[in-house]
Amino acid sequence: MKLSIIGRIGIISQLWKRHLQKQLVPHNITLKQIYLLKHLIRVDYLYPSRIAELLFCDRPTASVIIGNLFKTGWVKKDHDSENRKRVRISITLEGAKKLNQVLEAGYQGDRSLDLKTALTKQEIKSLDGALIKVQAIIEKMR
Fold it and tell me: Averaged over 7-17, what is the pLDDT?
């Protein structure tokens, strides 16, 4: 049976996630956790709603991810000084150390696949253009 293009994109996405997660297993950290730590290291803090957007998940799922990172001591929660109901999430020194440890161990994330070795420049350009169009169509469906 021939797959639809969207079906093929879905399979590629799942295979890629599994590949990345496999690299993280020895470090006891998930793909979403490392992704969040990589964002938090570059900013002072993020609000949980923004974290949910970054992780492409709903707010309750983001809260679970944040809670697990908090339990490990990799992030901290502070109340916003202007609105005490809002919580700011920031990386701790332990979280920065964990991120550094994983990166120093060789985790490359998206850089671990160089399509230039398998595709020509024109194929990459065509694929990128087509995927941008597909993404725009799907984003309009939200």
Answer: 95
